[in-house]
Amino acid sequence: MSIPYWRLSGLYFFYFASVGAYVPYWSLYLKDSGFDHAEIGQLSALMLSTKIIAPNFMGWLADHTGKSMRLIRLASLLAAIIFVGFLFVEQYLWFAVVTLGFSFFWNAVLPQFEAVTLAHLKSESYRYSRIRLWGSVGFILTVLSLGWLFEKQPIQGLEYCLLWLLILSALTTFITPETSTDKVQNSSISVLPLLKKPEVWVFITVNVLVQISHAPYYVFYSIYLEHHQYASTLIGGLWALGVIAEIVLFIYMKSMLKRFSLRVILLCSLILATGRWLMIGWFAEELWVLVLAQLLHAATFGGTHVVAIHFVHQYFGNRHQGKGQALYNSLSFGIGGVIGSLGSGYYWNGFGGHVVFSIASSCCALAFMLAYFWIGRKSKQHELVLG
């Protein structure tokens, strides 16, 4: 059976197009709506907190029913429907309620779609990066278009842009084919023996630290640049530049995997992440430094994410792929994102962006030390074997 390349790529495109509207501009939208930094951090943490539960619940359902795409379609539709609530609420409490409902289903989609993509690829998992890069293309087109738009129009129009992107993403799920899975085999073999291995939790801890470090960037980077008098178009351009660098990495990842082990890619990515947050935190007035820091997004997000996807695919196998992808997303993006969002929100006013980004840098330095001593020291050239 041939790989449905364009249908898989299309869902990545529209899903990450909505991410391109949400991540760079939602904090500016909240600020314009009258929320302070602490409240923005709290709402961002609520958004990420559903990643702790939703992907695991969806992963359990997918592995037991073998109907991943049916669940993805349902979750995508419910996310779009609940998002309509943002058009009618203004108070913090109701904003928080709608955020929880919308994000529960939105955050449940991607981990299962990652599992569906890898199931379609089978032994050709090296092609993952070439499919995933279309998500980055969608992100870039959205972030640049909205940056230009919000130079001319109020940012309050963001909610309508996001709603349309969510609807398009939901519609795309209906042309993406289901994969065949053996639900009896999946449900009869426990995942617990894998979760008892300490090296798995070291790997998860590394990714939690990476996501803690990314939280100030995702939540406050646009506000930080606006504070330094950068225009919306330039802010959008810097976001897009980071994702362009990520696309280049995805294009050449197959060649990189032939030359370097996943361990080497991970360690190099963590070193570069440590430097990137210091550059943003202490040299925000220098545009050339920000440009260089954005180019490092290829490593800090792209490199660490590709390594994690390959690790989950190798370690959890086809039997528990849904649970494995859910565990990676819920613990790293969920718990890591919540801790980072709450922490950066509470400490931003008192200490400033330079201190918050320095703490982010320290998290990556700690992640590097854990990865260096625990992850893949005995691995072969193209494998990631923990121990």
Approximate shape: globular
- What is the fourth-level CATH superfamily? MFS general substrate transporter like domains
Provide the structure class. Answer: mainly alpha
Percent helix among the residues?
over 70%
Mean pLDDT across all amino acids: 87
Number of helices: 15
Low-confidence stretches: 182-188, 379-387
Query: How many β-strand runs?
Result: 0
The end-to-end distance, rounded to whole angstroms, is: 36 Å
Just give the CATH class. Mainly Alpha
Encode the helix/strand succession as letters.
HHHHHHHHHHHHHHH
3D architecture notes:
There is one protein chain. This protein is mainly alpha-helical. It has one domain (5-179, 193-374): MFS general substrate transporter like domains (Growth Hormone, Chain: A), CATH 1.20.1250. It has 15 helices and no strands. The protein has helices at 5-32, 37-65, 68-83, 92-121, 128-149, 158-172, 183-188, 192-195, 198-227, 232-259, 262-282, 287-295, 297-316, 321-351, 353-374. Helix 2 packs parallel to helix 4 (92-121).
